[in-house]
Amino acid sequence: MSARLLSEPAPVRREALGDLARSPGSRRPEGLAHGSRPGGRWRIGAPPFPRRNTLKLYENPFSSAALKVRAVIHELGLPVTLITVDMAKGEHKSPDFLAKNPNGKVPTLVEDDGFCVWESNAIMCYLAAKKPESGLLPADARGMAQVQQWLQWQATTFSASTNEVMMETIYAKLFGRSKDEAKYAAGMEKVRRDLAVLEKTLTGKEFLCGKLSLADFSIVSALVLRTPMGVDLEAFPNVKAWVARLEARESVRKSLPPM
Ligand SMILES: N[C@@H](CCC(=O)N[C@@H](CS)C(=O)NCC(=O)O)C(=O)O
């Protein structure tokens, strides 16, 4: 968690992530201001930034769980300091980080008074609650239940399917092992099953809950990596259009991993 780690990502991550890795000299996506002082930090949010940020997101640019939180931060225009956790160096298992999140996972949100939240969906809810007028997490019981339904579906169902596929593509490459075709095929079958659920839900709708909500950011985050995962959306036109709609948003574009 230092300036060096952010400006010079560990070579193993750059190499292993192949076409997702940023080339030397390429810049953080537009909108992520590079902190001028050391500390491995990027500040995001609507300028002008307050002199002192109270929110810090410990994350990694290549984490899909962190991507959704970054997108929501941009969408809400909250000033947050991003701190890159170098997972290749095991920083997420350091005593200092485990004190913030005993799971040793990113993303993790920390406030100046020491308040911590982990689990990306919980972090998004916490951030959206700071700006209820955004409507990303409706306050009415039914609206909230529908958004929560999709957040739970993402955490229990879609993340499991997409993780199986990521393990045999992105992570297999990262760890230098060959793809297990049987596991990949089994994972893809589950991803297609889940895409069919999304396809049906999105019939005649712009967003999963009608209006843009946390549900959209949570679920689309895994599909941003569809190309390296080998996921084809041609058979799911509603999903394809919904992904394009979200990827066209500035908040999502600014959150993409460095290419
Ligand atoms: N359910 C968690 C998943 C977090 C997660 O698995 N993060 C990965 C990066 S995408 C991680 O930190 N992995 C490190 C590890 O499991 O040791 C969330 O949504 O925040």
Largest sheet: 6 strands, mixed
Number of domains: 2
Please, what is the average pLDDT? 84
Count of helix runs: 12
CATH architecture of the largest domain: 3-Layer(aba) Sandwich
Poorly predicted runs are 2-39
Cofactors and ligands: glutathione
Can you identify the CATH superfamily of the largest domain? Glutaredoxin
CA-atom Rg in angstroms: 18 Å
Strand content: 5-15%
Overall shape: it is globular
> What is the CATH class designation of the largest domain?
Alpha Beta
Biggest sheet, spatial arrangement of strands: 1-2-4-3-5-6
Q: Helical amount among residues, as a percent range? A: 40-55%
InterPro entries: Glutathione-S-Trfase_C-like, Glutathione-S-Trfase_C_sf, Glutathione_S-Trfase, Glutathione_S-Trfase_N, GST_C, Thioredoxin-like_sf
GO molecular function: transferase activity
Organism: Archangium gephyra
Family: Belongs to the GST superfamily.
What are the defining features of this structure?
9% strand, alpha+beta, 12 helices, 259 residues, Glutaredoxin, globular, disordered N terminus, 6-stranded mixed β-sheet, Glutathione S-transferase Yfyf (Class Pi), Chain A, domain 2
Can you characterise this structure?
The protein has two domains: 3-134, Glutaredoxin (3-Layer(aba) Sandwich), CATH 3.40.30; 141-253, Glutathione S-transferase Yfyf (Class Pi), Chain A, domain 2. The protein is 48% helix and 9% strand. The protein is built from twelve helices and six strands. The chain has helices at 3-7, 11-16, 64-76, 95-100, 120-130, 141-168, 170-174, 181-201, 214-223, 226-229, 237-247, 250-253; strands at 33-34, 41-44, 55-59, 80-84, 108-111, 116-118. The longest helix is centred in the middle third of the chain and has 28 residues, at 141-168. It is globular, with a radius of gyration of 18 Å. It starts with a helix and ends in a 6-residue tail after the last helix. Keywords: Transferase. Residues 53-135 form the GST N-terminal domain. Belongs to the GST superfamily.
